Design the sequence.
């Protein structure tokens, strides 16, 4: 372990009025076979019993827990705080409505130690498959037990779909903080994961280590509304996506969304085009305006309903 860190892992959870869900996660951490970790909880302005609940767990002293409370600013701001405060060499994000299998950390360490020492600096972390509470794999499994590649390659060349979960090196996350945009509380996490993916590999493993439970009040269930309310961060994500080393068809798809959410951000067409760096995309831009505008109108209808 890097001597500048006190733990091997920092488990991180951002939570907002999810006190009724955190017990499953707490129990799964208490039963981990690998004990060298801390749990950082950043409360994003909850008004429920979260603070009292966590205070009780801290007093129990079963696992090292540190609790921080901020005004409601969004998960990405909470992650920035968690990374700054982390005392673990590896940073592992677990959502408040999820929980891990009891040997998850042990498995991560096993696979991390299988990376040859001369190549370890090429890797930012390890990532696993997820499952639902019935044990069914969520999304796609990887083509083989172990694959070493970037997250960009995994998603857009191999086209592996579905939630994946794992740790990243804390020292690298410190180099890639989430941008903070005034008056916006959401930023696609993939913005930062893609930035990191341009430089580092991940070891992907076919182990189902996280149990995912989607809640009706979560980010997944209200994606369109959240993106419409936070259009500047969303358009920043789509703009950066257009520079990634992916196929032209992926860029067309994301250019449509760039235009769509630029309308939500009140950016006129001239400003939208001026922000594009790719000449080929500028040429095709006018053809995509009707599709993007139709999606923009449809978003507004859905939100009203």
Sequence:
């Amino acid at each position: 372990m890097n001597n500048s860190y006190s733990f091997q892992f920092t488990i991180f959870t951002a939570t907002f009025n999810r006190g009724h869900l955190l017990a499953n996660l707490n129990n799964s951490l208490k039963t981990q076979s690998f004990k060298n970790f801390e749990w950082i909880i950043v409360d994003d302005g909850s008004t429920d019993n979260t603070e009292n609940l966590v205070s009780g767990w801290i007093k129990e002293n079963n696992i090292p827990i540190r609790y921080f409370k901020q005004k409601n600013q969004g998960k990405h701001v909470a992650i920035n705080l968690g990374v700054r405060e982390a005392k673990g060499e590896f940073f592992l994000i677990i959502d408040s409505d999820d929980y891990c299998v009891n040997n998850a950390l042990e498995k991560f360490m096993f696979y991390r130690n299988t990376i040859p020492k001369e190549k370890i600096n090429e890797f930012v972390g390890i990532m696993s498959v997820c499952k639902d509470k019935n044990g069914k794999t969520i999304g796609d499994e990887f083509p083989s037990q172990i694959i070493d590649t970037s997250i960009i390659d995994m998603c857009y060349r191999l086209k592996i779909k579905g939630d994946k979960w794992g740790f990243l090196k804390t020292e690298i996350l410190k180099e890639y903080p989430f941008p903070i945009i005034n008056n916006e509380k959401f930023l696609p996490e993939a913005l930062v994961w893609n930035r990191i993916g341009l430089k580092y590999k991940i070891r992907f493993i076919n182990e189902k280590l996280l149990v995912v439970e989607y809640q009706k009040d979560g980010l997944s269930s209200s994606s369109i509304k959240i993106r419409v309310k936070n259009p500047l961060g969303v358009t920043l994500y789509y703009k950066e996506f257009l520079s990634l080393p992916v196929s032209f068809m992926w860029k067309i798809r994301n250019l449509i969304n760039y235009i769509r959410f630029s309308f939500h951000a009140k950016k006129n067409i001239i400003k939208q085009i001026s922000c594009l760096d790719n000449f080929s995309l500028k040429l095709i831009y006018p053809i995509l305006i009707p599709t993007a505008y139709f999606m923009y109108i449809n978003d507004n209808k859905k939100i009203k309903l």
Observations:
- The longest strand covers residues 201-211.
- The chain has twelve helices and nine strands.
- The beta strands are 7-15, 37-43, 65-69, 88-93, 99-100, 123-131, 146-149, 164-169, 201-211.
- The radius of gyration is 20 Å.
